[in-house]
Write a structure and sequence with these properties.
- This protein is an alpha+beta fold and 100 residues long.
- The protein has a single domain, classed as Roll (SH3 type barrels), CATH 2.30.30.100.
- It is 46% helix and 33% strand.
- It has a five-stranded antiparallel beta sheet, with helices on one face.
- It is globular and about 45 Å long.
- This is YolD-like protein.
Length: 100
């Protein structure tokens, strides 16, 4: 029984170390994702390129498509315009942004 306990503890430590490594990588991955989103938003504003946004928390897979016409860095919001309509969108609400 001692050997089983020893193996169980070692296995638990290995699993814990793997989980710790994954959690350490999450902030870096989130930062890269955010930088990619911000770059796409800036590109849309500069070059008047249509983009598609996938939003967090407003229903599964909610998408908006249009052109960024204004970026407010202090409030972290963008103005997305399509046809004759527009909407202010918080950058933190964007899960994904890509060129449409």
């Amino acid at each position: 029984m001692g050997k089983q306990l020893e193996e169980g503890l070692q296995g638990g430590f290995v699993h814990s170390n793997e989980e710790d490594a994954l959690h350490r990588d999450e902030p870096a991955a989130n930062l890269r994702r955010l930088e990619g989103i911000e770059s796409t938003l800036a590109q849309s504003l500069r070059s008047h390129i249509r983009i598609t946004l996938v939003l967090h928390g407003e229903g599964e897979g909610r998408q908006l498509s249009g052109f960024v016409t204004s970026i407010h860095t202090h409030s972290r919001e963008i103005k997305l315009q399509w046809a004759e309509e527009w909407k202010w969108v918080r950058v933190d609400d964007i899960a994904e942004a890509y060129i449409a």
